[in-house]
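Exercise (ungraded).
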Amino acid sequence: MARDTRQRILDAALALFNADGEPNITTNRIADELDISPGNLHYHFRTKAHLIEALFADFERRMLELLSAPEDRAADIEDIWLLLHLAFETIGAYRFIYRDLSDLCDRHRGLHQRFKGILRLTMESAGRLCDDLIEDGRMQASDRELKATIRNIALVSTFWLAFDQVQDDDIRPGRAAWQVMSLLSPYLIGETREQMEALAGQYAEL
Amino acid sequence: MARDTRQRILDAALALFNADGEPNITTNRIADELDISPGNLHYHFRTKAHLIEALFADFERRMLELLSAPEDRAADIEDIWLLLHLAFETIGAYRFIYRDLSDLCDRHRGLHQRFKGILRLTMESAGRLCDDLIEDGRMQASDRELKATIRNIALVSTFWLAFDQVQDDDIRPGRAAWQVMSLLSPYLIGETREQMEALAGQYAEL
């Protein structure tokens, strides 16, 4: 029962943070939404920071699971699309984190360090993937291009949602996945590039 | 004399906003910094919003000048580098705008519309540039790649600074210019691509 309340608080907080921005939502507003007393909410989460930390931990767990998916074989282009799509749906589900990232990182130093960890892992995964593709003769890029591309993959992955929001555009994880794939696309060779083109046709309009 | 005070207020506000984030700086703090009375400050800027608007107007004027630079001839790669470098130095000079862009746009609807205008112009300029390069046979890309690349140029241009900040990295306009140029680089052909490679060597380390 207590566990149910805890989860209901997390769900309501996530929905409100996503809709109106985390700084604009008080814990009292969340308690109101659930029709529970502020005391009951504070029993589960002593401060708003604890609530934010618990939501961030859920998000982090999902992202780390995705980024460290076991690879018993070299990833093909379709696997990468799927991974990006899942990651970007997760980012969409926790979009309050990405909405004002600098501000969130300023106010919660602990989360800042953990977010940097996710970024580091993103760049490592992207780097490993590119190395695999180059080794298999499916991709060609200079070291300097590779370095910039890996940085751009992390940058576009992190800020596509804020970019859609600033433009008053719909949040579209499929289009965002293509935005990232298009960073790799021109470096791909032969059959692999054709495979990418075919998949892009399906994803870019999502 | 009044004009001097007005400019001194703008300069102090910009420096404080950039250093500590605009939401963390009150107009009293700015008056303190200049050793003037709050009343004197309010004579020049009735509210903090007016002060932000005046700074944004300076920024906007500089960006629009850059983006609408007359082109009596087709731009070459070196011109584009220079343009990006100047634009990114301007973004660095007004970095408080880019630090928490979503938040700023939420709180100042008028600025949001004007920022969207700058974004639109950025994408139009990038599109025109790509069209020129393709027409001259210096670039090759599918329509779908072109569309994604233009979006990525605007996205990386808008968020490179927030990305550097989230990573606790130095703010480096030269590296950011290369981040954007590297989006075009793999689509360039022959001599133009070689020219890009040569320039990248100079800029990427800045």
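Further reading is listed at the end of the chapter. For now, observe: Chain A has two domains: 1-46, 53-203. Chain A has a mean pLDDT of 91.
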